[in-house]
């Protein structure tokens, strides 16, 4: 979920469906909502490698496109900004890609600096939906995907990473299935109206 200051929704397979369902519900309530797609798809179309083959240039371009999208919309007249990914997503992909140590540290420095001035209000982590659609962009290597998941868990539990960043609420939706979408949208919108 994101307001003009940049909350994000991230998670596993099924998040895009949930994201657009959530946008639809919030718009029905009269809110002005913008949805940001995945920057990685745009970068892939430009010929940059992703996933196991990702490079510093790929990750930097994805990160810059994400930040650009968030900043452009933070100055517009919207109520909620939703995004398929957050800048935090670049961490596991960068760590497991073809970046050297100094390149990875540079990506981390950009992310940490950005989060200090534009912290997210809510990150939603979805668990479930294990079907991987072969769309030419998503990685299908199950062991690699398990490593990405482990890296996300490590990041969210790493108190050192979060030093100096405003507290971010993380909502975990376990055992998510597309058939549960209405129930999950209701949970998220209820949280949004109560807490944000």
The largest sheet is:
3 strands, parallel
Span between termini: 10 Å
Gross geometry: globular
| SSE pattern, N- to C-terminal | EHEHHEHHEHHEH
Beta-strand percentage? 5-15%
Helix content: 40-55%
Q: What would your notes on this structure say?
A:
The chain has eight helices and five strands. The protein has 196 residues and is of the alpha/beta class. The longest helix has 19 residues, at 56-74.
Topology:
Elements: E1 8-9, H1 15-28, E2 33-36, H2 39-45, H3 56-74, E3 80-83, H4 90-96, H5 101-117, E4 122-128, H6 142-156, H7 159-162, E5 169-176, H8 181-195
Parallel strand pairs: 1-4, 2-3, 4-5
Labels describing this entry:
196 residues, alpha/beta, 3-stranded parallel sheet, 8 helices, globular, disordered N terminus
Give a short overview:
By secondary structure, the protein is α/β, with parallel strands linked by helices. It contains eight helices and five strands.
